[in-house]
Specification:
Layout: H1 12-37, H2 47-54, H3 57-63, E1 67-69, E2 72-74, E3 85-88, E4 92-95, E5 108-109, H4 110-118, H5 123-135
């Protein structure tokens, strides 16, 4: 047997119970986290996929204050006045300016535009917002 910092004897059965309680709590938290992250609705359709199929990226950009300049878009936070966002067919945009929230070396889809511009890039919050919208 070993003593704790107070000089009290530690019981192995109590330690095992404490460890088991901690492990159970960690498992519950991990499961709750997995359920929150899952972007599937009850009918099995992905919230993200559904949003990408229905959303109009041009409309999202306009609502966020981006302005169309020919075939490109100008960020509302642009300091140079040079439009740096290109919209591709197939529902993706690519941003050339690293200071813009839409910058990604691979481009972004409509859901990512929504998540970055309305939810600070927090995909969980964006999915939750879309679920609330569907439920309403």
């Amino acid at each position: 047997m070993h003593a704790n910092v107070y000089g009290e004897w530690l019981r192995a059965d109590r330690l095992a119970e404490a460890v088991q309680a901690i492990e159970d709590d960690e498992r519950r938290q991990a499961e709750a986290k997995r359920q929150r992250v899952n972007p599937r609705e009850y009918n099995g359709n992905s919230v993200i996929q559904s949003f990408n199929e229905q959303a109009d990226i041009a409309q999202l950009l306009e609502q966020a204050g981006y302005r169309r300049r020919g075939k490109k878009w100008l960020s509302p936070s642009s300091h140079s006045g040079i439009p740096g966002i290109v919209q591709f067919e197939g529902g993706r945009v690519f941003c050339h300016h690293t200071s813009d929230p839409l910058y990604d070396p691979h481009g972004v889809d409509a859901f990512e535009v929504f998540a970055r511009l309305w939810h600070g890039g927090d995909r969980r919050k964006a999915v939750a917002a879309l679920r609330r919208e569907v439920a309403a």
